[in-house]
Give the backbone structure.
Amino acid sequence: MKDVKAQKDIKNMKEMEDIKKMKDIKDKLDKLPVDIKLRAVDRLKIHIMRQKYGYFSRLCLLLSLIGPGILVMIADNDAGGVITYAQTGSIFGLGFFIPFMVLMLPVAYIVQEMTVRLGAVTHRGHAEMIWKRYGKFWGAFSLADLVIANILTLITEFIGITLGMQFFGVSPVVSSMIALVVVFSIQLFLRYYTWEWISLSIAALNLVFVPLVFFVPHLHWNAVADSFKTWHISGGVSSLFIYVVLANLGTTIAPWMLFFQQSSVVDKGLTVKDIRDGQIDTFLGSFFMVLVAIAIVIITGSVVHGVQGSSNMSIDQILHIISIKMGIVPMKLFALGLIEAGLIATIAISASTSWAAGEALGWPKSINLPPLQGWYFYLPGLISVLIAGGVVLIPNIPLGFLNLTVQVVASIFMPAAMLFLLMLLNDKEIMGEHINKKWQNISAFIIVGFLIIMNGLYGITVVFPHMFGR
């Protein structure tokens, strides 16, 4: 009897100790700023999940940690990207750009995986790292680079949203207002965890382009397979081909993606223990990004390529051809995908602007902040959205040309952003054992080198427009 009573006393003491520990944790959390408190609560949940074993527990842990990688890659298939892929297929058909898109998977993964390690090791966003490590001049330079590129890219998102909504009978003014209300509501009134899952739910609609491939009449799968053997370039290497290659590079890797994923990793609270899950997250995102891009090229390369004037078609003309050859339902699903692509990218890009400005200027920098407390954090991103939403309403603005040009500008800005990233990832004082491996540096420098070469060739075509033909 004494032993039973002693065991009960020990059990009661342990329960009392656990209650006291939980009370102490709660008291400490209550003293923290609200954004840090919410992040700490999320990390506590992850810590508890780590104590459980088994495949199901491991899967639950992975699902809790993924998000930034899938979100950044799906948002990279933005409205500008969808329009670029659609025009690429229309101009060049089933050839070079299908295997080229497959090559973009390792390119996107190699670049974005570095931001996962940098964010998890330093617990600092990209803008903050540049500002503190390389000084105010380079910090201001990188921030200005990002803000300009982001506003230009946001314009393409509103191009996609307004054009897509027109096929549902909604005017550009109304569709811009709807997009503004949705983006403002998501950014201002959700904490990070909810913001991420709602954003991922919207992003899932990006996959609508994949089943549309099976609506293509008389699709020649042999031609798709042959493209990997021949890498055929319809019309040969020309100034237009170089321009479109550069545009596709710009929509695959862009400066905002570096800032977004690193800041998202930090705001989510990932640590070095989570790097592996962050890498899986980034690979899955890269895979879905490439899958959607190839699907769009196959659709327009099969349906639109070869139609008179296909080398110079706008996205609304492409959608009109799709409606004639595939039907109204596939066309409206394509338009819905275009709207979703613009919306999810607007959410992500405006968040990257807010994070970068907050990090650079020393403001609180978390989506966990309540609107009244963190209004100056949200302001830069929301102002950029307002500017973009207004620009697309300017009468007679050349939307198709503007879209491709923005993608090219993004690829021109990218080498400088990549060099900052590489310097940080090779700084042993910062990264410790998580410093870049030799193969990662070689791969990254090949990507930077290719970007510089393509930028150089594009510059030559501007000065000597007939050097490579049309």
